């Protein structure tokens, strides 16, 4: 694996975050605007990006391989959920911050960093498996992730925090039927059905989806601009978390799965997707709920910075 590939992706990410910081400090972006952009990403651009992956003209893999990938990646997410509830106790995280560490553990940046990284390291043939991982990510973030954040928002409201009531009254059915899960289901149907859609539709979705990376990094940049650098890099607990989550967990997953799966591309894609830094989707959802996002922002930034070291270390265990 070329370390240059990882460095290039990280540099791009940091440049976009820096643009968000500059725009906020120059008052061209506000906290309220950041929340509105978060809503656009969650409900419009991210679903469009997901659906676009079903329209690629590359070779199709067999249903058997898709099934193996789906089951194995679902098992990996189950492992991550278990680990997410253990890590706060292992690291003695304050109870009020358990939700932040759970979000940082379960949800990696499999879209904005994972897709270009897998393409460069494993080749374009890995992208169908990356798409499956992204499908599961979206299903989980819009269901389990939202449930955890809504429960935490309710607790913060009970403690006197200013949480809009509209953020806490989402019905049980609405948790599962939303832009994320609908787009995930649509992607599976389009891919398996190999439907031909009009160019005007596919191009519109493509242009919309491409905005996701820039907009999401601008949102993260606004959050970074509001945090003192010492609040990001002066937390020993976050360094220990990064060691566990981005090195030990990916290596443990690959060692466990390689005895059960013989498809090297499925295994190597899984390793990369588990090794990427924390995703910012939980941050954007939490911002929409007016929650305290400092701990999540700190975790995203630190894991992204340290991924320059952790991703190459984890990739030493790629199956060859």
Architecture overview:
Helix content is 74%, strand content 0%. 42% of the residues are buried. The chain has a single domain (3-317), classed as Na+/H+ antiporter like fold. Mean pLDDT is 84; it is low at 165-170. The termini are close together. It is mostly helical and 320 residues long. Helix 2 (31-52) packs across helix 13 (281-288) and helix 11 crosses helix 14 (294-314).
Number of helices: 14
Cα-to-Cα separation, first versus last residue: 11 Å
Average pLDDT over all residues: 84
The coarse overall form would be: globular
Low-confidence stretches: 165-170
In the CATH hierarchy, the architecture is Up-down Bundle
How many whole angstroms does the radius of gyration measure?
Answer: 19 Å
Task: Kindly list the characteristics that best describe this protein.
mainly alpha
Any chance you could write out the topology, listing elements then pairs?
Blueprint: H1 3-25, H2 31-52, H3 63-90, H4 98-106, H5 114-122, H6 127-158, H7 172-176, H8 179-193, H9 199-225, H10 229-233, H11 236-257, H12 264-275, H13 281-288, H14 294-314
Helix pairs in contact: 1-9, 1-14, 2-8, 2-9, 2-13, 3-4, 3-6, 3-11, 4-14, 5-12, 6-8, 6-13, 11-12, 11-14
Task: Report a brief summary of the structure.
This protein is mainly α and 320 residues long.
